[in-house]
Please model this.
Amino acid sequence: ALIMAPGTKRMSADEKRKVILGIYHQTQQVYTEKEIIALAAKAGVNANSIPEVHQSLVDDGLVEKEKIGGSNYCWAFKNKKDRMAQKEYQSTLEQIEQLKPKVEEAAAQLADAR
Model:
């Protein structure tokens, strides 16, 4: 059972991204671009906006896309999103550690100026 859009209300770009990503995460399958467009349309995403929204997911690294023969195959697995969040968290912690000495130095200069 794929996620169905409630009523006919217009979806935000974020909602469209969630629906498309949800299709991949629920089915855990590889699709051609044509297949994912059809599935997303069936789930209530405006067909004209699907290619653009899907490409944004590819650009953000949430969906993998490979050209094999004459077709593009796409897939996305839940743990990939978790792993990316973990890496971003680690990167943020490292940036904080790098900034601590600068903050302390600035605080010391400020104290000296007073």
Remarks:
- The helical segments are 13-27, 33-42, 50-59, 78-113.
- The first strand starts at residue 31 and ends at 32.
